[in-house]
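In the current project phase, we have settled on a layout for protein records. A sample record is reproduced below.
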Amino acid sequence: MSRLVGHTRQNISIIQGLPPVYLAPILSYYTRAAAAFSTSSVMSQRRTRTNRDNNPNRGVSALRRTGLRRRVEMSRQPLPQPVLDPKKRSKVTVDPDHPLWGFFRENKKALNTPEEADAFGRPWVVEELRNKSWEDLHSLWWVCCRERNILATQEYERKRLKAGYGAAENMERFRVVGQTQKAIKHALTERYYAFEEARRVAVTDREVNLDAEPGSQAYTPLYSDETMMEEEYPVKRSAASPESTA
């Protein structure tokens, strides 16, 4: 009887030392994962494939026709070494009339000072642009395009350097340039409608020849100035004139 009681107490102590039942799945997983690992020299050796055929074209798709994969070969030429001494570096000459200088100011600086960024005027208005020629409007339009490129370059450089200033002035300049371009479009639109109205009137005018060749006279008046003067102000001839007595 005492021996039975001893075995019972031993089994109870073993059961009390075991983890809870709900941890059984995860413990069984780690038990299986650790069972495949061995520290012995035989089991820890790297396993090699016994069915390897040493085919260099293994994996090349015959359906997609990818072709042979060439190996990357290193050249025997020595690699260039960086020049750490500034005195030994070669000077790079840049053409002063290079087109990429159009993305910078005349001083060729990537960023302006706050005083320079804030120094700009007002936009052009339509009343001022109505008196400009076509060549002037064309030149002013491309000046605005160049200004937008410069402002975009400065904004990119400001974000890259995290300068922390000039963003508000840059946005204000963008707004001024955009208003000038809108005014140029407005003036050109007015000229377009005026031209179309004049062309519509010229179609029904007998004195205008729209099919005239370049360099020839497109306007041919039906009446001269003298004829129009005689029609508006007729000359009263006297009865004693030679023409009347003849």
Remarks:
- The chain has a mean pLDDT of 77.
- The two ends are 180 Å apart (CA to CA).
- Helices lie at 2-17, 24-35, 114-117, 126-129, 134-161, 167-203, 225-232, 242-245.
- The CA atoms of residues 134 and 184 lie 10 Å apart.
